[in-house]
Amino acid sequence: MSWNATSGLTPVRTWWGTLAFRLTAGYTISGLLTVFFATASLYLVLITNLDRSTNLFLADKVNVLQTMLRERPNDVDALREEIELESAARRYERFYIRLLDDRGNPLMATPGMADQLDLQQLVAKTQDRPNRATAMTGKNGRALRVISTAVPVGSPPTHKDIIQIAVDVSQEQELLARYQRWFGAIMLGTFVIFPLAGYQIARRGIRPVEEMATTARHISSTNLRERILPAGYPVELASLADTFNKMLDRLEESFERVSRFSGDIAHDLRTPVNNIRGEAEVALVRARTVDEYRDVLESCLEEAVRLSDLIGKLLFLARAESPLTHLQRVPVDVGELLGSVREYYEASAVESGISLTTAVAIEPVIAALDRPLIQRAVGNLVANAVAHTPPGGTVVLGANADVAAIRIEVSDTGVGIPAEALPRVFDRFYRVDTSRSQTSGGTGLGLAIVQSIMGLHGGRAEITSQPGEGTRVTLHIPIAGTPGEIN
Ligand SMILES: Nc1ncnc2c1ncn2[C@@H]1O[C@H](COP(=O)(O)OP(=O)(O)O)[C@@H](O)[C@H]1O
Ligand SMILES: [Mg+2]
Predict the structure, then answer these.
(1) 340 and 476 assigned to the same domain
(2) pLDDT over 80 (residue 309)
(3) Which of 148, 307, 454, 476 could bridge to 126 as Cys pair (CB 3.0-4.6 Å)?
(4) Which of 425, 434, 438, 469 to mutate to test the pocket of ligand 1 (most atoms within 8 A of CB)?
């Protein structure tokens, strides 16, 4: 396939580059070859059989005369009957016989033989090839086969006579010529019919592909609704159409998610900005005391912090998705990392009346991880657990490892997550109870960030929850290499 230099991706359309043309050419060539070999082999069989029957006929005649000359050399009447009468009486199977003595003087011949063929030529043709049939042309242009044989006369033989036989094979030649004309006509027909039929078959076979191409051409980000109806398609193309439809389903779903996501961003950015604006406007309506201005500024600062926090999270997610993001892996003692996260959240847990503990295997779990990112992921999980656990509850941070992966677990005895919400908690901006999360300052990005950190580490996050009993989030991180290898 040749490619258009200007667009780079669009193949240049040439008729000989089409699938229809290639299929048609393939059909036609194989059709022509098949017909050619079939007809040619029939022709060969025909020629061989005709030749053989002519040769048998000649051998038979020679045999009869040979026997007669050996057994009854003096029965001239019988010889005459055989040579002069029998051959003359035949209408369709014409043959001519001549009997010569050993010096070449003619003894007997089919009447009119000399009119039909040049006897001189007959002698010349057969001289070098005794007992072998040879082709010769008669005086009126008819095709002949001739043979000449010396046969012993009498028993015991006294001398040798020469038998010359010519058989007219023009009917056989005519049959072959007719066959050749047929052969030509059939080849010509094949040449016309095969491309036409082949093209029709190819077009019909390719039609589903063209329909798929048309559907694909109609697809755009605003129109992902279109699907291919594979009814009546051959199995292979039906499965391709099905794959294509499934791809469209996924595309439609992710486009929907993206547009919902940008709507959510706009909404979440607008709220703090509106708050700042509202408070500033109200404050400016009349003169305020210094304390009142301070209050307004503090409140504005709070909103600005919220805003920059949100933007920071969005930027983080965007960067985590970029293929250029590289991890800074260093050997991390996971137990020690969990301890530092616990310390960080200790105060707020105590304030909420929650016990926050770590449960790490006695053997230190050490792995090559991007420490700040893992710390952030675990921090998000602990923040969630603390936020959704009522006073008196427990939050436990645990870690264990095997040869292939390490697992970090954050479990709580909190309110849990309803089963129907569970599959969506990792979605961006998804919050189970919007009003409650809003008060706790959640943006619905915490678990999305956890998931993208896991993605960067080639791991995954798993969540299980029982409403009313608690939630457990497990981070599975494959071990990328021994800490010693990290530099
Ligand atoms: N440990 C947990 N217990 C109960 N609900 C949870 C827990 N962790 C997450 N959730 C639910 O999942 C939602 C999404 O979590 P997250 O992405 O961290 O967003 P948020 O900013 O709301 O914390 C939360 O709004 C909350 O409803
Ligand atoms: Mg959260």
Answers:
(1) yes
(2) yes
(3) 148
(4) 425
Q: How many A from CA of 384 to the centre of ligand 2? A: 5
Tens of pLDDT, residue by residue over 194-237, are: 999 999 988 888 888 888 888 888 887 777 888 888 888 888 88
> Residue 428 CA: which ligand is closest?
1
Q: Is residue 29 part of a domain?
A: no
Q: Higher confidence at residue 396 or residue 110?
A: 396
Domain boundary among 262, 295, 321: 321
Residue 141 lies in a domain: no
CA angle centred on 171, ends 170 and 176, rounded to 5°? 95
In a domain, 229, yes or no: no
Indicate the pLDDT class of residue 6, thresholds 50, 70 and 90.
very low
Residue 372 maps to which CATH number? Answer: 3.30.565.10
User: Taking 60 as the threshold, does the pLDDT of residue 347 lie above it?
Assistant: yes
Look at 10 and 270; give whichever has higher pLDDT. Answer: 270
Q: How far is the CA of 401 from the centre of ligand 1 (A)?
A: 26
Q: CA 370 to CA 377: how far, in whole Å?
A: 11
Rounded to the nearest angstrom, the distance between the alpha carbon of 405 and the centre of ligand 1 is 25
Do both 355 and 252 map to the same domain? Answer: no
The DSSP code for 12 is: P
Residues 359 and 402 reside in one and the same domain = yes
CATH classification at residue 270? 1.10.287.130
Which residue in 455, 470, 441 sits closest to 354, CA to CA?
470
Cα separation, 410 vs 394, in Å, equals 11
Residue 177, classed as helix, strand or coil, is helix
Specify the pLDDT at position 131.
82
Distance CA 87, CA 73 (A): 20
Cα 5 from Cα 9, distance rounded (Å): 8
77-91, 164-178, 206-220, 223-237: least confident range: 77-91
Q: Which atom of ligand 1 is nearest to the CA of 441?
A: 21
Range of the structural domain that residue 306 is part of = 235-321
